[in-house]
Amino acid sequence: LHMGKTMKEDLTVVVKYIEQLYPPEFNVFSTYAELYHNYFASQAKKNAESHLEDKDIYLLLSWVHSIYLKYMRKDPVLAKELEKVKLGSLLPSSLSKELEKKYLDSEEVRIR
């Protein structure tokens, strides 16, 4: 969550102050957003492949599927810019489904 907050703050600075210093063809915002996204994706994958407790799986999946881009898209400064950038998912679909299954199986056992 801290990394996401930092990304949001940094991208806001890029939109407000840095992007205007470069010609449009430099795609400054896209470059920053893609670099952050690639870093987050590598960290999310690394975390997903480690041994996670159920609550950690839940938090990771919540971050990947709900919080990550929605959090930034609610920001009026970033929303318009993020629409132009195709960032994709933080986790490969197969890994995400594997984590979902593991979490749901564990919850089913716990509830029984």
From TrEMBL:
Highest taxon of the lineage: Eukaryota
Family annotation (InterPro entries): EXOC3/Sec6
Pfam family, one: Sec6
BP GO terms, sorted: exocyst localization; exocytosis
GO-annotated cellular components: exocyst
GO molecular function terms attached to this record: SNARE binding
UniProt protein name: Tumor necrosis factor alpha-induced protein 2
Species classification: Eukaryota, Metazoa, Chordata, Craniata, Vertebrata
